Amino acid sequence: MKPYPATIIAGFTLIVFSLWAWFSAENGSWTALLPVGFGGIFLVLSNGIRNENRKVLIALTAYSILVTLALYMPFQRAWEGGDNLATIRTLIMVGVCVVAVIAYIKSFPHFGREKKKGK
To answer: Which of 13, 35, 99, 117 is buried most, with the most CB atoms less than 10 Å from its CB?
Structure first.
């Protein structure tokens, strides 16, 4: 997968699944909305990925790893609480972030080099 679609998919997945979790909770915690902000940052930085900005790619790679680590606690809470739907929802968000990290890392060697050849 290329970095730009991975960024868009990660952003929208984090936003949609986070909103789904918040609206489906009986007593919605505001911390459930944190992935909405995470996804929004993915979408804001997606333009830099489309323009093949190498610095944005490096920043998004680190950011994706941080988001993946940040989703560990909600996953653990859902797993221990026996909430299968929350567990699956969190695993999907983690999986999308991991796929994005893989797409970013695979594109490191040639990202932004096409523009340098033309100069």
So the answer is: 35
- Rounded Cα gap, residues 87 and 76, in angstroms: 8
CA–CA dist 91, 100 (Å, integer):
14
Q: What's the pLDDT band for 3 if we cut at 50, 70, 90? A: very high
Domain presence at residue 55: yes
Residue 42 has, within 13 A of its CA and on its CB side, a CA count of: 32
Enclosing domain of residue 80: 3-26+34-108
77 is a domain residue: yes
pTM of the predicted model, to two decimals? 0.85
Q: What token pair was written down for 51?
A: 């323009």
Q: What is the DSSP string of 68-113?
A: HHHTHHHHHHHHHHT-HHHHHHHHHHHHHHHHHHHHHHHHTTTTTH
Number of domains in the chain: 1
Q: Is residue 116 part of a domain?
A: no
